[in-house]
Description:
Blueprint: H1 12-48, H2 50-55, H3 57-62, E1 66-67, E2 74-75, H4 78-109, H5 112-127, H6 130-153, H7 167-192, H8 195-203, H9 208-219, H10 221-236, H11 240-245, H12 262-269, H13 275-312
Helix pairs in contact: 1-13, 4-7, 4-10, 5-7, 6-7, 7-10, 8-9, 10-13, 12-13
Amino acid sequence: MREKRFSIIGSYQSKNKVEKVAKIIFIICALFAVVAVFSISIYMIISGTPAVYKVGLKEILFGTVWQPTAEEPRFGILYVILTSIIGTTLAILIGMPIGVLTAVFLAETAQKRLASIVKPAVELLAGIPSVVYGLLGILVLNPIIYKLEIAIFQDDPKHHFTGGSNLLSAVLVLAIMILPTVINISEASLKAVPKHYKQASLALGATHMQTIFKILLPAAKSGIVTAIVLGVGRAIGEAMAISLVAGNGANIPFLFNSVRFLTTAVVTEMSYAADIHKDVLFTIGLVLFAFIIMINLILSKVMKGGYRDADSE
């Protein structure tokens, strides 16, 4: 006898059961995601707000002195916030042009043989652990930056030498780390532009470069902006690599100052923090969480704008 096999291309009852089971699975997955985000949000709010009442929101957000273990502790994180904002901005300004132009190269100008070498290299960058970036920064980048620091400040007696562990090193490491995100999403956006855009531009007499910069890049702007926003999220949420190369000092965010980012402030001190000190670290996490929410809102707005542009076309 032939065995009876189950198939969704069967009776109405079997297909109806499959539909119901699939709907239940989808609902459970969706609820799990919602519950996870809601739980994290509630936990961060509950854990981060006590320090606001104990220390004061103004003292935490606008204070410039971070001395949590002093006899009279101070918990100002203004320099830490500014470091995260300035460091992320500089990393994007460096990484964005390199990433977008690399995406243009892979999507439009690279020969297949050369693209087959560059593309795996970009994907390998995405797979390298953060701690490896940090180790390479300490062993390779920091000595180079230290030599530059000596050359610039050798006659300045007031400068505190950092050994290369400063904001500039952190910015360069972050710029490298965001490249895979910017390149991959930008390349996919460029390849998604309808082919007749390029063909029409070339038919009207435009050169290949004019077509790229006047037609293709504007048409792919929604995806490129999305790549940049995701790169910002990667940069502002990075901790391990930055803690190794930035110097971890709560100072004014100048390029050759030892600095501390929001993420590194939590990572380096949570293991021994207690009482109010620990509560303030949770507040720092809440501030970082607020930054991530803002980035996600911007991303959602950008994507909706891209959908409207697509519908209008």
